[in-house]
Amino acid sequence: MSYHKIRTHIRQEFVNLILDKYGKPDVIAGVATGGIAQGVLVAQELGLPFAYVRSEKKAHGLTNQIEGIVEKGNSVIVVEDLISTGGSSLYAVEALREAGANVKGMIAIFSYGLDIAKDNFQKTNCELTTLTDFEILLERAIEENYLTESELISLKEWQINPSKWSDNFQSK
Prior knowledge:
By secondary structure, the protein is of the alpha/beta class. The chain has a single domain (4-134), classed as Rossmann fold (3-Layer(aba) Sandwich), CATH 3.40.50.2020. It has helices at residues 4-21, 34-46, 87-98, 115-123, 134-143, 149-160, 162-167; strands at 27-31, 50-53, 66-67, 75-83, 102-111, 128-133. Helix 1 (4-21) packs across helix 2 (34-46). It is globular, with a radius of gyration of 18 Å.
């Protein structure tokens, strides 16, 4: 968010992606907290209302989980910054659906491409589109000589099973 040119590029790519893939929705919704800033920028660019979804309902006040106006039947695109397992992101999708929204899909800046995320999005029947992903990051890192071949192998092993991979580094 600190870099104007990058922030603007991401916003514009999100706008292009939404319009090309989904058409203009009624509302843009960000997932708290990572999707809020980008979501606001996208909503502003598209001249649309913005809402955001908390990970859980507030314990006080109106106990809202969704802040902003999302009316029953509204078409919504959900904005997120990063997808790992998809758990918290899909929790936001479910909250919007429970409120009567028609979630057309989710867009994110980056995904690790983990199988668990793919399964979670498929089970929830929510289409995910990202601007980039772990595979592209690895390709660029190799092209720029940021990674050795052994580091690349290790990172690909991590992607297959992050929890098993991290067990290699647990003290016994």
